[in-house]
UniProtKB/TrEMBL annotation:
Molecular function GO labels: rRNA binding; structural constituent of ribosome
Protein name, entry field: Large ribosomal subunit protein uL6
One protein family per Pfam: Ribosomal_L6
Lineage: Bacteria, Bacillati, Bacillota, Clostridia, Eubacteriales
Keywords: Ribonucleoprotein, Ribosomal protein, RNA-binding, rRNA-binding
Species, as recorded: Sulfobacillus benefaciens
A GO cellular component entry from the record: cytosolic large ribosomal subunit
Domain of life: Bacteria
Subunit and interaction comment: Part of the 50S ribosomal subunit.
Length: 179
């Protein structure tokens, strides 16, 4: 039995959920999301809760059970509260700024790097070395944050680069001089 799959998903008052077979459509104050789930799981509404159940007892159906429950729970959480990822920049001269909706990064290249947000994602720059990626789709927010981090990942010798807030960068010892 899946410990995650057994839990029901509470639906806040501001969120509406429509289930049509294996397709689920969630609409809330932040936006709306739609996803088609695998046929190995079924969805049912019980009052103001959603229950996800496997079709049979096969290992693949049980694996999809917990995954599907988490995907639907993230959809409900996203349209009601939203998600955010915080990124930090460390390095001399590394800075971020916004030009309109776009994020402009100066990270040691001979040029600046401009990143356009996909629909449903908003960038915030509280100070020049911090970036906040906000949105209602957890998958998209994580993918955009990973793309920003991939512009200049942290290097292990000095720790310069773009990293997630709270990420631990494993440092290496540099070369030693001759004696």
């Amino acid at each position: 039995m899946s410990r995650i799959g057994k839990r029901t998903i509470p639906i806040p008052g501001s969120v509406t959920v429509n289930i049509d077979g294996s397709s689920v459509h969630v609409k809330g104050p932040n936006g709306e999301l739609q996803r088609t789930l695998r046929p190995e799981v079924t969805l049912s509404m019980e009052g103001n809760e959603i229950r996800v159940l496997p079709v049979d007892d096969s290992p693949f159906a049980r694996a999809q059970w917990g995954l599907s429950r988490t995907l639907v729970a993230n959809m409900v959480e996203g349209v009601s509260n939203g998600f955010q990822r915080n990124l930090e920049m460390s390095g001399v001269g590394y800075r971020a700024s916004k030009q309109g909706q776009n994020l402009v990064l100066a990270v040691g290249f001979s040029h600046t790097v401009t990143i356009e947000p996909p629909s449903g994602v908003v960038f915030e720059v509280p100070n020049p070395t911090n970036i906040v990626v906000k949105g209602y789709d957890k998958e998209t927010v994580g993918a955009v944050a990973a793309r920003i981090r991939g512009v200049r990942p942290p290097e292990p010798y000095k720790g310069k680069g773009i990293h997630y807030q709270g990420e631990r960068i494993i440092r290496k010892v540099g070369k030693t001089g001759k004696k």
